[in-house]
Amino acid sequence: METQNEIMLVETETCSDEKRVCSSGKKRAPILFGWPWQNLSNFKYLLFGPLLAELIYSRIYEKKHSEYSWCLHILILSSLRGLVHQLWSSYNNMHYLNRNHRDNFIILEASVASIILLINPSVTNLPVWKTSGIISCVIFHIGLSEPLYYWLHRLLHSEYFFERYHWLHHSSTVNNPFTAGHATFLEHLLLCVIMGIPILGSTLIGHGSIIMFYGYVLVFDFLRCMGHSNIEVVPHHIFDTMPMVKYLIYTPTYHFLHHRDMKTNFCLFMPLFDVFGKTMYEISWDLHREISSNEGTKAKAPEFVFLAHMVDIMSIIHAPFFLRSCSSLPFARNIIFFLNWPLAFLVMLMMWAKSKTFLFTFWYLRGRLFHYWVVPRFGFMYFISSAKDGINSQIEEAILKADRIGVKVLSLAALTR
Predict the structure, then answer these.
(1) Which residues cross the membrane (predicted)?
(2) How many of the other CB atoms lie within 10 Å of CB of 11?
């Protein structure tokens, strides 16, 4: 279980900004801090209902296949955006892969897009592809969205706005793709403007297209999730080969330094604007090289390992690399869990056939590294005589592995003893 490309799970000294984060959460929320539907729980997804109803009604009763096609596009795009965030969240939490090597904003932006399209239906008649639209979208992004976000981000770090709004985004002690969407209602309204400028700008000058619309939004989400992930995925040799590229695209390491320091690296996606604003952290590229190079992959051996096993098939659904909405409810059981039971059963069979003991999660406590390893076997398997040899082999390999890498304490769960 050699570590690879791990960035950030290190203890840092509490700085004044972090103290502000803690204290700010106790104050009364200012205007536009919370979401209008924050008390609806999962019923908030019913806000997509009017789009679905309009689409079905227009197709069945009015036979309008083009006028309301934007309803379908918004629903598809919202689903794809949720998938992008889910996949990044899953990958970020697959510690056995990448450490060894809230959907409110989607509802908001779907609602804003719907309102704009209702006010001006003419923008819905877009071609599938238009090369000039891709070019104009990139120009609008670099020329307007990037600098506007940079200065708004710096404004959000001023004492007034940070203590009332932006502290929420920085309240995550460890970066996660969730962090990309973890912000106040006001901040996401501003982000709607940032994201909307290239799309609307290109469309209003006659160069919009459906591919441009889908592509820009999904790439925007992809890069936001990548920057807030807790793993480095950008190899440093790209920057060695093409030095200018490092000013055109940020990395998880680059944005991590912003969350740690809070006074540098304010850019949206392009560090070039931190160069112009003289806010680039001077060690950004050296740290990225160290983390993504072979030297950065040398693992620190955990001092304590707890060797556990799966309890039942349903426990897979609670894993942090499964569905985000399920992993946040560790003791719950609802319809979503039972609908995913067949998939969980299939995963169980695959783990039984191929998987080896893997790193499930890890944490630091008072400077000491703790690991939680999981034997890929379930509770009921320990009572199947034909499965005992395989289980014992898994446990033996894990013990030998722990001894080889220098683990000081190995604790076994009940059935693994």
Answers:
(1) 188-219, 335-353
(2) 11
